[in-house]
Amino acid sequence: MPNTPDLRIQQAVALAEPRGVKVMAQSDDLDTAELERIAVLFGTRPAGVRCPLAHFACPFGKSHVAIVRVEDRPGSGDPLGFRFLVLGRELYGHLGDPFAISDRYPPNWNASGTLPDLVWPVEVLPERTVEQLDAILKAGDVSLLLGGTQALIDGNTIRLQRDEPAESLVRGLWQLLPNRDRQTLWPASFAFSDELGFHLAALPVLSVLPNKDRARALTEEAVRDYPPSKYELSLQIAVESADRVALRALLNRRTADDTIRLGLYILGFALLAALIARFVM
């Protein structure tokens, strides 16, 4: 029987002001320095840019993941509120949807002092359905959604220039990705800088990336023109034909790393069997 992952989720509320980041409330033992580092690397607000609601997910130390809700907060100096949910990588791997996790726990922006740890119920998120994905494709920008999905699966990163959060777009694209890919990709529906290394991000200003990263970083135009490939086409066919079995298989597909790892296991087993047979004979 598989082990149950650590279901505890630490939480914190922080405020970023011109003077720096101030943690207003937090769970016991939360790594405050790591929290402040992430809030700082989110970036400095460009003049005139608002952030009514955005989300991002990123590593939090070596063994945890931070899911962060970001909102404009009232006050002088345009403070920015950060609500952190910090959970183990194993639990995040079972869930894979930072938006659904954040939605489960509404923020209390007035919290102060010590906060209790949250506990995820012993359940996985509901399976995505044909109807949900069909609604996303019909209501959204199909070329950007499908092209972005295939581009991310192929190992690219995506940078979208936006003056406001692309919350709906990024949420929709996230629903189209296979489960295993969602475990290792980091989305941001808005960020003020590129310092946290997101795989998919909307930014008010697109920074110039180092040469080694440019080949894999796609702009919106490149994503729209991204050549269709197997996953994107199969997903579209499964959704349009309401093929639930095919959709389930696509969402649960192995990644390229999984396939390579499986091949190595098989090769190792074959070599071990050959050695045993040689000594037994």
Structure description:
It is a single chain. It is built from 12 helices and 11 strands. It has 281 residues and is α/β, with parallel strands linked by helices. The protein folds into 2 domains: 8-119; 130-256. The longest helix is centred in the C-terminal third of the chain and has 25 residues, at 256-280. The model is unreliable at 256-274 (pLDDT under 50).
Taken together, the total number of domains comes to: 2
The average pLDDT is 89
What is the 3D form? globular
How many β-strand runs?
A: 11
Report the structural category: alpha/beta
How large is the share of residues in beta strands? 15-25%
Runs in which pLDDT lies below 50 for 5 or more consecutive residues are 256-274
Distance between the termini: 37 Å
Write the element-wise H/E pattern from the N-terminal end onward. Answer: EEHEEEHHEEHHEHHEEHEHHHH
Report the helical percentage.
40-55%
The total count of helices amounts to 12
Major sheet description = 7 strands, mixed
Rg of Cα set: 21 Å
